[in-house]
Structure to design on (684 residues):
DNA sequence: CTGTTAGCGCTTTCAA
DNA sequence: TTGAAAGCGCTAACAG
């Protein structure tokens, strides 16, 4: 059984197609009595307007694409939830595109989204050193907002986390606690975000007169497992290079997932957190508050970021001018239980 | 600047619109030399076929809706990732619909999805006792697969977790460990899934000759915070009703998020896990393996579930018959460190 | 206020 | 092997 069309409604209501259209879109020109007749007819037929047909003629899809690198990191679902919420309120529908941090996949996804004629795109994170091919060709005509993709922050309205300063604060916090041998568990080498956090770490070290040492930086992949492996590597290096009298006493991890994994790794190797080793994370994902010990971390207001991003996008699509098109969020230190004084 | 249409390509290639269509869709009737000319023209114009127009005529959107209750619970993003992966491979695009466990919102979302003419829907979890209104009217004509919505498992192809047996196993495990006062941290009262898990818990208790006691069941909301609060409530009840000589020594939580929150709550009240109190969860989300102590839980193969669901849906949409339209996954006990013998 | 008409960009007969 | 024409379901002038 085919779905009823506007024609069916018109026939049943005894009016023309255009009247039905106007009535259903609640245009003021339609007499309210006919409006009612039309609504009744529509209801009787269980008529649902075909958004596809509408899009074709209005030339707007009211679809937005949300491009994220990894749904397994709670950070992104949190952003997605924020985007989704305001999108719904604004009568947009969101298409999910998961790139798995793969440039090829990302390009493919963008292509699909463009063919679907999304009105706009929200790019959240996952930027890698190589990936900037996609826009020039395809994406010039639609609305775009980027979240935490520093390399595009000056080409598009952007929401950025001040990763460098956040990382600097985190590191400085550790230093204030008396730590002198502080390691950094980074994300993948080509991740911009991770590079910025690395910069902040180095900066804090330098300004405090503590040298930067390459052997104290180890690369993970933003997953808990990656954090665990990184910690194991770190502690084995610690034994090899540093000697027993100057062990690593604090670790700054580039995200909470790795920080949690790292805490686990530390325990596996007989270290107690924070007594033997302090750990600080980044993001403040939900579970951070309830792990043992509760994770001290640099909080980032994920939900708000998602909401803000979608809000900005909607304004762009409405051709409104953005009073702010370069929003920078400052991560905030949340002291919990995973760091202690030396 | 408007996007080029098939007409532009036709003009540039010096052929007709229908030839372009055939060429681009790689139909064998087109001479390969013209095919090439067309492709070149398309490339030069940077032509992207308009999926909306295509959908209108082919009457298929290649869109599928994914309806989930809560993106903040890692369980659902994991399913989403699975769905997304095979959807992409099959050239479907997925629309995300987050209901926030709100029946009204769910109904609204479904409406939108139907208007967008999604080819199919996968409903993942979040079923509540009241919510079965949506199908009769709207959703009879499209493909539907349900994940863990027992109330629909016989109306649609379904993927179900054997919640009752899983819960029974979990409880039995605790009993084998020598526990006699075992509490259950449930989900919201109206959650089917949670009710099934409660049944399993009761069954195990009964079959082991341990009585079911209402004061040992406390309702959470599937969040870590909810688990924490539930645990506090539980321990305060424990003091009030049970007396010091028969305290709660084990807790089965209806999902991992609450289990992790509960562990935290226990610690806050001076209990050590698992020495003073054992805790078992359900789902096996990523972080479960790295919290302290690592969470013993009933594992559910989330990614696979997502993949399987999307696979089934695709088959339905192809009018293939499903060799299996009622798939039941058995949760598997993963022994880690959060449970100990009495 | 309501109806007629002309597309939106594509696919799909059907002829040539 | 290609082209002409019809039409998917809707909105948007424009006339009445």
């Amino acid at each position: 059984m085919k779905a009823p069309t506007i024609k069916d409604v018109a026939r049943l209501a005894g009016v023309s197609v255009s009247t039905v259209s106007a009535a259903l879109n609640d245009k003021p020109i339609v007499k309210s009595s006919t409006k009612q007749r039309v609504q009744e007819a529509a209801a009787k037929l269980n008529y649902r307007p075909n958004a596809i047909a509408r899009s074709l003629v209005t030339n707007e899809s009211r679809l937005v694409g949300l491009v994220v690198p990894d749904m397994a990191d709670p950070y992104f679902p949190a952003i997605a939830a924020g985007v989704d919420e305001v999108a719904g309120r604004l009568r947009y529908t969101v298409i999910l595109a998961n790139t798995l941090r793969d440039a090829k996949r990302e390009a493919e996804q963008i292509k699909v989204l463009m063919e679907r004629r999304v009105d706009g795109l929200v790019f959240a994170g996952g930027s890698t050193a190589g990936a900037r091919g996609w826009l020039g060709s395809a994406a010039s005509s639609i609305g775009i907002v980027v979240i935490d993709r520093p390399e595009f922050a000056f080409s598009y309205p952007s929401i950025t986390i001040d990763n460098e300063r956040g990382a600097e604060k985190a590191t400085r916090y550790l230093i204030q606690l008396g730590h002198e041998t502080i390691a950094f568990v980074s994300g993948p080498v080509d991740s911009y975000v991770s590079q910025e956090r690395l910069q902040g770490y180095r900066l804090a070290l330098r300004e405090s007169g503590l040298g930067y040492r390459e052997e104290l930086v180890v690369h993970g992949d933003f997953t808990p497992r990656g954090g665990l492996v990184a910690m194991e590597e770190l502690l084995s290096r610690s034994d090899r290079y540093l000697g027993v009298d100057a062990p690593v006493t604090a670790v700054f991890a580039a995200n909470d997932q790795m920080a949690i994994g790292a805490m686990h790794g530390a325990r596996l190797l007989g270290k107690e957190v924070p007594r033997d080793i302090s750990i600080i994370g980044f993001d403040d994902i939900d579970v951070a508050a309830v792990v043992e010990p509760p994770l001290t971390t640099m909080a980032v207001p994920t939900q708000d970021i998602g909401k803000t991003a979608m809000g900005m996008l909607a304004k762009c699509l409405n051709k409104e001018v953005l009073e702010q098109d370069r929003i920078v969020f400052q991560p905030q230190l949340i002291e919990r239980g995973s760091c202690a004084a030396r």
Q: What stands out?
A: Chain A touches chain B through 62 residues (CB under 8 Å). Residues 15-19, 22, 29-31, 34, 53, 55-59 of chain A lie near DNA strand C (CB under 10 Å from a C1'). The longest helix of chain A spans residues 224-242.
